[in-house]
Design brief:
The structure is a homodimer of 215-residue chains. Chain A is α/β, with parallel strands linked by helices and 215 residues long. Helix content of chain A is 46%, strand content 16%. In chain A, strands 5-6-4-3-7-8-9 form a seven-stranded mixed β-sheet. In chain A, strands 1-2 form a two-stranded antiparallel ribbon. In chain A, a hairpin with a 2-residue loop joins strand 5 and strand 6. The radius of gyration of chain A is 20 Å and the shape is globular. In chain A, 37% of the residues are buried. At the A-B interface, helix 1, helix 5, helix 6, strand 9 and helix 9 of A face helix 1, helix 5, helix 6, strand 9 and helix 9 of B. The structure holds a DNA duplex (22 and 22 nucleotides).
Chain lengths: 215, 215
DNA sequence: CCCTGTGAATATTTTCACAGCT
DNA sequence: AGCTGTGAAAATATTCACAGGG
């Protein structure tokens, strides 16, 4: 019997593109398209078609020569490999403007990320309801997290409290953190911290603009 | 006389890291640190110190052998090159939860990005005040943009209307768009579209989590 | 044909390693 | 001594280009 579980590690860049393909494919699938070629994907995203084929090849063989890829099974495949089929429980820390935007951001829910817990220590916020969740304090975080089966934490507090929050999360057993606070966080190696910095993109754009101006 | 304006193009990756260094440096500077070495920066960010030196070298020579970099002038230098010293006028399109979070996100304002115009066609929102801005309809966009000296547009509308909004923006003369809608936008070549997809990071994290689970 | 999958070539990015400055 | 700046090497990522399948 052949080992199927053998997994090549997919590179960061490839993962990122697969995510983008996936969205594109679902949009196309919804509008009735059943087959797609690497060239078509590449054109829509302004990238090279070899790139697309190579990325897809990491999923296991699926394409049909002369025709392209079966949309449905390709989408399925990507979602499978990226873990987008299962649901993930998410805890939000920080019930400010950004927190609200995240909880109500439709794409999150569509992707299987379920906010199950909203935490804030501001007494004016505690007890309010967001998306059916009552905002709670951080006390007894570990128990709350276990009860709601939460795996991922989203930090949306001001940068001053972000490190403290991260420590609390790690103590409560969280291993995956998505950090929206504009500050680098320290944590032990088993904890993955992903940075989602809103202004980073804007600053890249600013470089773009200013180098254009000089011209 | 030597030509100073001669600019090497700084790679995307380097720009991204410079932005991150810049934030780190400012934090360190605020807590009284005046000199820093490439090794120190590298350690804090868990990267290679050569990388840091090479990135910094794109700014022009600044480091002092045996000592490191003068914090103040390094920060200055990065901000200069990345165009973070000047102020940029920004128009927000889409006054929903996400739009509100962006307008009130402190890091934006701290970086010189000024929201000067908030646009939404929902009559329940028009006329409300956010951050001292009155929410307006999209009518006469070109004139509004010129009057407020806006260079950058931030799209925070549902994905269904994102392409339409982008077209309107381009017609109104906008050349730089930061798109928060989870959809690929089409525009002519002179327009730069930057994607800031909140759920993309979460999905990368999901890949991470699911590959960890398999283990 | 027209497409996929993939070796091989190319381009880009990162790291090593060390000369040279302070 | 201790650090920077940078050629040169190594590692990664992307693109070319073509054999092979339907």
């Amino acid at each position: 019997m052949k080992k199927i579980t053998e997994k090549r590690k997919i590179s960061k860049h490839t993962v990122k593109r697969l995510i983008i393909y996936c969205r594109l494919l679902r949009d196309a699938y919804e509008s009735g398209c059943l087959w797609i070629t690497s060239k078509e994907i590449a054109e829509k995203l302004a990238i090279n078609s070899s790139q697309v084929r190579r990325d897809i090849s990491f999923l296991g063989k699926k394409g049909k020569s002369g025709v392209g890829y079966d949309m449905k099974s390709l989408i399925d495949n990507i979602q499978d490999v990226l873990g987008l089929k299962q649901k993930w429980g998410v805890v939000l820390i920080g019930a400010g403007n950004l927190g609200r935007a995240l909880v109500y951001y439709p794409a999150f829910r569509a992707e299987g990320f379920e906010f199950r817990l909203a935490i804030d220590n501001d007494s004016r916020k505690v007890g309010k309801k967001w998306c059916g969740m009552k905002i709670e304090t951080i006390d007894g975080l570990k128990k709350k997290i276990e009860k709601k089966e939460v795996e991922i934490a989203v930090i949306a507090v001001p940068k001053e409290s972000a490190q403290w929050v991260a420590d609390e999360l790690v103590n409560a057993g969280i291993k995956e953190i998505l950090n929206f606070a504009p500050v680098a966080l320290k944590a032990s190696k088993e904890v993955t911290i992903t940075y989602a910095d809103l202004s980073l993109e804007l600053r890249r754009l600013s470089y773009h603009l200013s180098s254009r101006r000089v011209k």
